[in-house]
Design goal:
8 helices, 236 residues, single chain, mainly alpha
């Protein structure tokens, strides 16, 4: 039953991450701002600090659930076969856990940003606001270290999963989607590095769209795990 439980956990994790991304102040739905402009992003958080804290908690929960689903649910399945694709799946899950750990660190830093903004608002303390801005800049740097890892990890995990699933079903379709997410993310990353735009927010928007598509793929994979699709069971 472990893999089925992991499927449920993965779907819950995807929903939590999706909701937290949509409703975090300054993002898609709540007072949208350019997240690369520190002052703008800070002002959005300053309007809705309690909502920001709540969405950070949801995001952390979503990441932890996702890590559980892959490390406890899928990774043990790699012990029952050999081959290049299986090795890619194993290493891809390890890289994915590393990148999700980076996101958790970044969300912890975001907690400090929101706390600094709250402190500045309550006590009219400009030093606290300046400190929050400094942490925000460092947080962006931490999140940037996630970006080059995620395309490679996605491609390896997708290839490994496709090789495990013999018939075309929602799990296999989702696994192909994970590969496409990795390829699209890699192209966007290389474009941002070697063909920088006057408006870097274009690349940030592209990454967000890619990650949202990846969330749907993960949800489909979780559903396939729950159903017990062939290749995603303990006795596969």
């Amino acid at each position: 039953m472990t893999i089925k439980h992991a499927g449920i956990v993965l779907m819950i994790g995807v929903v939590l991450s999706f909701v937290s991304g949509l409703f975090f102040p300054g993002n898609a739905l709540i007072d949208p701002r350019n997240q690369l402009e520190v002052d703008e992003a800070i002002q959005a958080i300053r309007k809705y600090p309690e909502l920001a804290q709540a969405m950070i908690v949801l995001s952390i929960g979503g990441m932890m659930f996702t890590v559980y689903a892959f490390v406890v649910g899928i990774y043990p399945l790699t012990s029952n076969r050999e081959g290049t694709a299986n090795t890619l799946l194993r290493f891809g899950i390890i890289l994915s856990a590393l990148e999700w750990g980076i996101i958790l660190i970044g969300q912890g830093m975001r907690h400090i940003v929101v706390h600094g903004v709250q402190l500045a608002s309550r006590s009219d303390n400009p030093e606290a606001l300046a400190a929050a801005s400094d942490v925000y800049v460092n947080m962006i740097a931490v999140f940037m270290s996630f970006i080059p890892l995620f395309p490679l990890a996605s491609i390896m995990v997708g290839i490994g999963l496709v090789s495990r699933i013999p018939s075309m079903n929602i799990s296999k379709i989702s696994s192909y989607g994970v590969i496409l997410v990795g390829i699209a993310g890699g192209i966007t990353y290389l474009a941002a590095m070697f063909a920088p735009s006057d408006d870097p927010e274009i690349y940030l928007t592209a990454f967000n769209v890619i990650l949202f598509f990846g969330a749907f793929c993960f949800f489909g994979l979780g559903y396939g795990m729950l159903k017990g699709d062939e290749g995603l069971t303990e006795d596969a």
